[in-house]
């Protein structure tokens, strides 16, 4: 015989089930905690030959004054009809007695539903009380300030956790409010690029274009985090002055400084420029050569950006009366997909500029001046650049003597100026090309360290060089960053693009570093 008892889930509270056993009976004492009554079952095996068994049930008050007893006999196994009758009838009587002596039972599903509702209400209250996190790991993004604070509904967060993320992509362990969205912490599964694609597709299927996903590295513990924010908070900023007007104004001033830089007589007396504007035409060839290098530099950026789907703003050329121009400031107006795409765009400009500049520099050393005189400079000027000094030593040989003047094609000076502008933009600091390259190769934390080191080094150099002073001020106030977040910042770029980026950094270093080795002394060469 199987004694069927109600499932524990049907009782309104937990109960204790002590079991005592002897050779003639089993006794179950079931004290129900929320009730004042105690119920006991006694299963008595009758020793008579009839084989009948009885279940004695008694209910009593705690003081023992009132006790109710119920006796249920099991039918004889030989009579199936009697067994069925007893089973149906007496069991019903037993159930009726339970209904009379106990409070109405509550179904387990109702209990779970009630518990979930209370939990949801508590979660909503807790969410309302949580302070919204701001700052990293979304540096460089100024989220649009809307009229009302945007908070993701709990239902949306649950869908993100359970349906958008998952064991096969990013297993969420916790989440925190972040600006207008949510920052998820967890464990990344598989390659970051593939996981990002899967999560993005699921996010698109569930919510369309409502939200934007970022898969980043938490600067606090260097672990992957996922950030989901509404796209409405990532709208581009607007400026009071039209971008094209400001860029055009800077461009006109840069043209003037490029012309001025190639007219030595006007450089010594800037005030005389107003009375001698006709002399600016003498600086046109040099200005065109330097502008060509700058133009090729920017063209490289825009061509690669178009190929990778990155939107760039209008370039702002920065004028400089020392070298003609400090290059240009070009904003990235869209969110870059990954570090490899950023590396492609950032390295394309310097690679193009260095290529054209080196070709023109070599031609300047090889081609004699058209007037037979060219530009007369002291040989010590080539000590200012390791790259220019090394090429001059290689091509000019013993002609290059310490303390002796030398006549060179002016193309050397013009191309050198273009190379210097490229090199300055290749400094690994802030949002310069070099800063973006270092970020793409080594990550955000290493990039910030390079920026600090470069600013300190330029600050020390500014004590001896006025160009370094103006450049460190430009970086600190306009270009120190941080770089805006990429959609996926975890995957490292391909090795061939890393090699290009390192080449750009090395070329910039070679242009800026001095040439330390002495040329042949003129007095020694005379012997």
TrEMBL record:
Localization (cell): Plastid, Chloroplast membrane
Comp. bias (Polar residues): 90-104, 121-136
Family named by the database record: Belongs to the peptidase M50B family.
Main location: plastid
Swiss-Prot/TrEMBL keywords: Chloroplast, Hydrolase, Membrane, Metalloprotease, Plastid, Protease, Transit peptide, Transmembrane, Transmembrane helix
Record region (Disordered): 54-138
GO cellular component entries: chloroplast membrane
Lipid bilayer topology: Multi-pass membrane protein
Protein name per the record: Probable zinc metalloprotease EGY2, chloroplastic isoform X1
The Peptidase M50 domain, residue ranges: 287-449
Keyword Heme: no
Record InterPro entries: EGY1-like (IPR044838), Peptidase_M50 (IPR008915)
Domain of life of the source: Eukaryota
PANTHER family: ZINC METALLOPROTEASE EGY1 (PTHR31412), ZINC METALLOPROTEASE EGY2, CHLOROPLASTIC-RELATED (PTHR31412:SF5)
Pfam families reported for this sequence: Peptidase_M50
Ranges that cross the membrane: 342-367, 450-477, 497-517
CDD domains the UniProt entry points to: S2P-M50_like_2
GO MF term list: metallopeptidase activity
Keyword Isomerase: no
GO biological process, any: proteolysis
């Amino acid at each position: 015989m199987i004694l069927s008892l109600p499932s524990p889930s049907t009782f309104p509270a937990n109960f204790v089930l002590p079991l005592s056993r002897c050779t003639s009976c089993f006794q179950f004492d079931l004290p129900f905690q929320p009730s004042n009554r105690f119920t006991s079952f006694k299963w008595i095996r009758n020793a008579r030959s009839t084989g009948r068994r009885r279940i004695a049930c008694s209910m009593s008050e705690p003081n023992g004054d009132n006790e109710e007893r119920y006796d249920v006999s099991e039918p004889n196994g030989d009579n199936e009809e009697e067994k069925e009758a007893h089973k149906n009838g007496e069991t019903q009587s037993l159930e009726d007695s339970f209904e009379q002596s106990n409070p109405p039972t509550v179904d387990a599903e109702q209990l779970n539903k009630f518990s979930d509702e209370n939990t949801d209400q508590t979660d909503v209250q807790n969410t309302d009380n949580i302070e919204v996190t701001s700052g990293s790991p979304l540096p460089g993004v100024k989220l649009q300030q809307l009229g009302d604070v945007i908070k993701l509904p709990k239902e949306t967060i649950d869908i993100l956790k359970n349906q958008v993320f998952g064991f096969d992509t990013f297993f969420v362990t916790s989440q925190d409010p972040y600006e207008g969205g949510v920052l998820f912490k967890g464990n990344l599964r598989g390659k970051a690029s593939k996981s990002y694609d899967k999560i993005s597709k699921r996010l698109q299927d569930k919510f369309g274009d409502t939200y934007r996903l970022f898969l980043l590295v938490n600067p606090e513990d260097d672990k992957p985090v996922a950030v989901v924010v509404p796209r409405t908070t990532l709208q581009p900023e607007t400026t009071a002055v039209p971008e094209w007007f400001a860029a055009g104004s800077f461009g006109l001033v840069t043209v003037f400084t490029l012309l001025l830089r190639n007219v030595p007589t006007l450089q010594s007396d800037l005030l005389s420029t107003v009375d001698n504007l006709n002399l600016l035409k003498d600086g046109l060839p040099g200005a065109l050569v330097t502008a060509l290098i700058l133009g090729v530099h920017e063209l490289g950026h825009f061509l690669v950006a178009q190929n990778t789907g990155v939107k760039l703003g209008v370039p702002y050329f920065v004028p400089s009366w020392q070298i003609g121009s400090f290059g240009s400031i070009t904003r990235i107006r869209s969110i870059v997909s990954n570090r490899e795409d950023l590396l492609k765009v950032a390295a394309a400009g310097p690679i193009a500029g260095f290529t054209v500049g080196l070709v023109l520099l070599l031609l300047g050393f090889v081609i004699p001046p058209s007037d037979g005189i060219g530009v007369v400079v002291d040989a010590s000027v080539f000590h200012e650049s390791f790259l220019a000094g090394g090429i001059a030593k290689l091509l000019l040989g013993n002609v290059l003597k310490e303390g002796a003047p030398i006549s060179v094609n002016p193309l050397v000076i013009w191309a050198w100026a273009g190379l210097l502008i490229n090199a300055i933009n290749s400094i690994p600091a802030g949002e310069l090309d070099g800063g973006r390259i270092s970020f793409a190769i080594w990550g955000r934390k290493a990039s910030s360290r390079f920026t600090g080191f470069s600013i300190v080094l330029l600050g020390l150099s500014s004590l001896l060089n006025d160009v370094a002073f103006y450049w460190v001020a430009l970086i600190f106030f306009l270009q120190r960053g941080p770089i805006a977040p990429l959609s996926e910042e975890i995957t490292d770029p391909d090795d061939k693009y890393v090699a290009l980026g390192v080449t750009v950094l090395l070329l910039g270093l070679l242009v800026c570093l001095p040439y330390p080795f002495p040329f042949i002394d003129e007095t020694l060469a005379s012997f």
